[in-house]
Amino acid sequence: MEKLESRIRNHDREIEKMCNFHYQGFVDSITELLKVRGEAHRLKNQVTDTNRKLQHEGKELVIAMEELKQCRLQQRNISATVDKLMLCLPGEELERKPEPGGVSLGCICLFLSLNNAYYHISPPPHFFFPVLEMYSKLREQMKTKRHYPALKTLEHLEHSYLPQVSHYRFCKVMVDNIPKLREEIKDVSMSDLKDFLESIRKHSDKIGETAMKQAQQQRNLDNIISQQPRIGSRKKSKKDAFTSLDTELESTSPKSEQDSGILDVEDEEEDEEVPGAQELVDFSPVYRCLHIYSVLGARETFENYYRKQRRKQARLVLQPPSNMHETLDGYRKYFNQIVGFFVVEDHILHTTQGLVNRAYIDELWEMALSKTIAALRTHSSYCSDPDLVLDLKNLIVLFADTLQVYGFPVNQLFDMLLEIRDQYGDTLLKKWAGVFRNILDSDNYSPIPVSSEELYKKVVGQFPFQDPELEKQPFPKKFPFSEFVPKVYNQIKEFIYACLKFSEDLHLSSTEVDDMIRKSTNLLLTRTLSSSLQNVIKRKNVGLTELVQIIINTTHLEKSCKYLEEFITNITNVLPETVHTTKLYGTTTFKDARHAAEEEIYTNLNQKIDQFLQLADYDWMAGDSGSRASDYLIDLIAFLRSTFAVFTHLPGKVAQTACMSACKHLATSLMQLLLEADVRQLSLGALQQFNLDVQECEQFARSGPVPGFQEDTLQLAFIDLRQLLDLFTQWDWSTYLADYGQPTCKYLRVNPVTALALLEKMKDTSRKNNMFAQFRKNERDKQKLIDTVAKQLRGLINSHHS
């Protein structure tokens, strides 16, 4: 506490020192402030005196300003009066200086209007003021762009009023100015017409869009009515419906002469009523200009000008944008402009007398039709998306229906749609080629397993399959086909639906639609699907299991062709017994694919057999044979057994043919292996080992790897080898030579050339096997026998050739 108190005392001393240091400055500031207060008081008194003097002196100025204000107001009123009077006469005449000895019209007007009021001179003649009033009315009508009434007023003024005051000089000025006023009215009305033409050129797409919406609504209404029971005969034509709708909207749609030609219309919702296309346009500029030119005797000039300008606009409208084919909006805008152009011309045709005629409209339509069709042919050829082609077709149909409502012939458009139909078919085929390729590439080529009744019904619902035996089997069970069967079947139906969509609204008969769908489906089957299947079959990495499954799948797809026929019949209501009805080629397609798969199976089996045979490693100089067949052959037989076990679901003839083909190829390959040129020497022991391998093959053939063969039928594939080996192992040359050529010969399948080639290899072996063999009597006798047999075989060969 003592330290704190000491600290406080120190701070107090510092504060006291600081206050003592600044005290003198504080006193000086207070003194100066007192002096300033006195000066401010004196200044306030001076300002008050000055203000009092200023108020006193300004009273006279305020009075003078009020007098000036009244003078200016009078001057403005006089100027306004003079301006109003000057409007009654041509402006250029009011500014013209008076001739020597004469007065201007402005002076005359002022004199007539003001002399009585200001100078009390006797009034002018009573007929001066009606002339001036009529002239003022004329100028007011021209100012408000009421040109046709102005022209009537001008005619009335010229023939009724001016003749009464013709001896006055200012009236002569009016008479001279009348032709100029006519030309002015004529030019102004023509300017309004040009604005109108420019406006409808810019807004023709909006007019066409509205007309096409109206046509779409009418079509939807017709579809609804056609689906309901018809009561009486209250159905109206499309033209009547359009006309009644236009009339109703015309009574509620205001128009004014100041409009540029197009009334503003907000975008309507789809469920709201679309206004009549002709209600978007204010045609009053055309009517006014036509009336004016008719009154002025220049109707022909007006007609020629109007038609010339509209022809130019038609050529611009018919020029398609370069990127029109990229989106549907490009086509839609192009069609809207064309429809808008002809909607306007149709209305002009029916509401004016002779401005345009039917021949002129027909000429324009022929030009438009040819250019439109040429543009569509060119741009649609770039389209590769079938959905875009389908949307384009629907848009063309709506375009044609809209113009047909207004009486334009559109048969050529529907003929062109038949050309686009072929292009649509090509794009569909390309699209479905990718669909089939994806299905076939993603398939596992295994039977579809199902573990419940729900899954079983799902598969049966996707693909028409009936098998009572499979239905009786307990779950889980398998369908014989893989997943690509129901997928391919459903995609074929989707393709048929896509073809049917294009045929809608083309005014085709059921027979024509049916024929189109069948032809397109045949192209899908014979070209697209067949090519996809062939590509899968010919792939390098395809296995025997996949090929077997493909055969099974194509068999079931072939059976489903009749259901596709029924499907087409149901959606087109054309019976297949109808004359000229095209038949589906699905059966042929699937048969060809199955045959290709079968050939590929045969080829693959032979290739596998060749791969096993490449593992053969015979000791052709072996002294003794083994106790069993070679390892490579045992593996080969095991492979064949497992492979043919997979063939259980194949048609019987396919499995039998594959088995017989494999056995024949194996026998032929073994024969070639025995007789190949690289084997120059052959011992009896090696021949016996080879015989064991052939016996193994015969045992495989007797085991019946594929059911359906008759007894020993499959063994006949090895008969050539069996007789050749029996001939050498039993050394039964006497029988062979004695019975050669006879039908009952025991060794009928042994060719003497083959026997001689094999004998030569054994003869060389006998000679080189033992250098002392020539000193042994048995060996010498054997060599002599071999030489004798070889000599006789050569004799048989020579006699056969001779």
TrEMBL record:
Keywords, sorted A to Z: Exocytosis, Transport
Positions of the Exocyst complex subunit EXOC6/Sec15 C-terminal domain: 412-761
GO biological process terms held by the UniProt record: exocytosis; Golgi to plasma membrane transport; intracellular protein transport; vesicle tethering involved in exocytosis
Renumbered residue ranges of the record's region Disordered: 245-277
Record InterPro entries: EXOC6/Sec15, EXOC6/Sec15_C, EXOC6/Sec15_C_dom1, EXOC6_Sec15_N, EXOC6PINT-1/Sec15/Tip20_C_dom2
One GO CC term, this protein: exocyst
Stretches that traverse the bilayer: none
Entry's family note: Belongs to the SEC15 family.
Function: Component of the exocyst complex involved in the docking of exocytic vesicles with fusion sites on the plasma membrane.
Protein's UniProt name: Exocyst complex component
Species name: Monodelphis domestica
